[in-house]
Specification:
2 domains; four-stranded antiparallel β-sheet; six-stranded antiparallel β-sheet; elongated; 20% strand; alpha+beta; Beta-Lactamase; 313 residues; 10 helices; Alpha-Beta Plaits; single chain
Length: 313
């Protein structure tokens, strides 16, 4: 047995043990993200490997969590609530075991589950207790790790205070790069999504030229204030350059990102700030840097369209 030091290594050992104890063909831990069921960890020799994605509503796990199917089903043919799942129609699955995993706030994280291509023996009362206990222990470890991540994130922000933009108090480009890398590690580890928003001021050069750099500096500070008011404490807000700002919406799926974008646009409008804005989502199987590049391109496309309309007008 290898050393168990965190949720990931505990899951690895638990899956091997469950295979030995129950004999099902495949065991994995999944993560629910934006309507998708993503395999986060699995046994090395099984068909569904990490990164495999299913529609959550098609899975047996969704029925187990909803209560329309039991946690242990030795023969799926005997449970009408299971046989209509699209997953069953699309794969050779005749037996199922599952246990829900929750975050500390009660939101569903994903599941611990196993499937078999043939009906399995009815487990003994002791085996059922063992499965439930193992699920509860993994859930407790997961919640402890997620709480520790929150504290770690706060410590990272405190340490990154040295990497602040002097004019706005936001993180500077170096702080942005450092915190973006830290968030990428967390997203990769737990299959999370986030969004990146890039903001570029439309009128800074004109204000600097017509009203002086003091007025331009006031616009930059006002933009920082507007963005801070629109974001949450866990989000990363940075001044990336002269008139460019960036936001990482932490633990945001696409819907959450759209809500964050609405708040950003409303706050900019409330402060009378004209800006071009681009947003992109880091899906559970993507990476933040690619989302950053895409958001930047969307921002420049919006700026180009504004410039084109201005020339036509």
């Amino acid at each position: 047995m290898s050393e168990v030091v965190d949720f990931e290594s505990a899951v690895r050992e638990a899956l091997v043990f469950l295979k030995q104890a129950f004999g099902f063909d495949q065991w994995f831990v999944t993560r629910l993200d934006d309507g998708e069921c993503i395999v986060m960890q699995g046994l090395e020799d099984q068909a569904m490997q990490p990164g495999h994605t299913l529609c959550w509503s098609d899975t047996l796990c969704s029925r187990m969590v909803a209560g329309s199917a039991p946690r242990i089903v030795p023969d799926l043919a005997e449970h009408p609530g299971c046989v209509d799942a699209a997953f069953i129609r699309d794969s050779a699955t005749r037996a199922y075991m599952g246990f829900p995993l929750y975050k500390g706030d009660g939101e569903l994280y994903g599941t611990l589950c196993g499937i078999a291509a043939q009906p399995q023996p009815e487990p003994s009362a002791l085996q059922v207790q063992l499965f439930e206990l193992l699920g509860k222990l993994l859930n407790a470890l997961l919640q402890m790790e997620l709480r520790a991540e929150t504290q770690t994130r706060r410590a990272e922000r405190f340490a990154a205070q040295a990497l602040q933009d002097a004019m706005t108090g936001l993180f500077n480009r170096a702080g942005w790069e450092q915190l973006m890398a830290k968030e990428e590690q967390r997203c990769h580890r737990h299959g999370r999504s986030c969004v990146v928003i890039v903001i570029d001021l439309d009128e800074l050069k004109q204000i600097n030229d017509s009203k002086g750099h003091n007025a331009g500096d006031r616009l930059i500070r006002q933009t920082a204030k507007a963005l801070t008011q629109a974001t949450r404490s866990e989000d990363v807000v940075a001044r990336l350059g002269g008139d460019e700002f960036g936001i990482i919406g932490v633990n945001c799926d696409l819907d959450g990102g759209r809500e964050l974008l609405k708040r950003v646009l409303a706050s900019l409008a409330e402060h009378g700030i004209a800006a071009s804005v681009g947003m992109s989502s880091r899906p559970a199987k993507g990476d933040i840097r690619s989302a950053f590049v895409e958001a930047d391109l969307k921002m420049y496309e919006q700026k180009r369209l504004k410039s084109s309309r201005s020339l036509q007008g």
